[in-house]
Amino acid sequence: MRRSSVEISVGIFVLIGFLCVGYLTIRLGQMAWFGDDHYRLYANFESATGLKAGNRVEMAGVPIGRVANINLDKEEHMARVELTIRRDIKLTDDVIASVKTAGLIGEKYIKLSPGGSDIILEPEDIIIETISTVDIEELISKYVFGGVK
């Protein structure tokens, strides 16, 4: 009888451990269980050099989303960046998306600058105003080979 209660106690303890690991996996992986608390927007950039899926999206220095995916728009020959934005953040159609660098050689992120329009972007809309990343190598080569005036 005593051995049976010890085995049941250990089983319950192991089950609770598995539940905790499962919860932490979903929570740290930023997955949603029921529905999604983010919506998707797209932005086309001439260059998305250094930008990767998972990089953050910020507005006024506050993280409001993530870069979900980066593909090539074959019609416009531009980088199409898919952004996931928190549902409680409403962006207008004149928002400006720019690729920035955290620090001197830090990781890239998307900075959103709000506009003054009254028209709210809907999920799956495209951000029109974009500013691509500055290519340091291109600037240096222009300077070295006399392209800068």
Structural overview:
- With 149 residues, this protein is an alpha/beta fold.
- 24% of the residues lie in helices and 34% in strands.
- It is built from 2 helices and 8 strands.
- It has helices at residues 2-28, 136-144; strands at residues 38-45, 56-59, 62-73, 78-86, 96-101, 108-113, 126-127, 129-131.
- An 8-stranded mixed β-sheet has the order 7-1-4-3-2-6-5-8, with no helix packed on it.
- The N and C termini lie far apart (90 Å).
Please outline what is shown here:
The protein is α/β, with parallel strands linked by helices.
Spell out the blueprint of helices and strands.
Layout: H1 2-28, E1 38-45, E2 56-59, E3 62-73, E4 78-86, E5 96-101, E6 108-113, E7 126-127, E8 129-131, H2 136-144
Parallel strand pairs: 1-7, 2-6, 5-8
Antiparallel strand pairs: 1-4, 2-3, 3-4, 5-6
Please give the share of residues in helix.
10-25%
Shape: elongated
Question: What is the number of helices?
Answer: 2
Q: Estimate the mean pLDDT confidence.
A: 86
Characteristics of this structure?
8 strands, 149 residues, 8-stranded mixed beta sheet, Elongation Factor Tu (Ef-tu), domain 3, 2 helices, alpha/beta
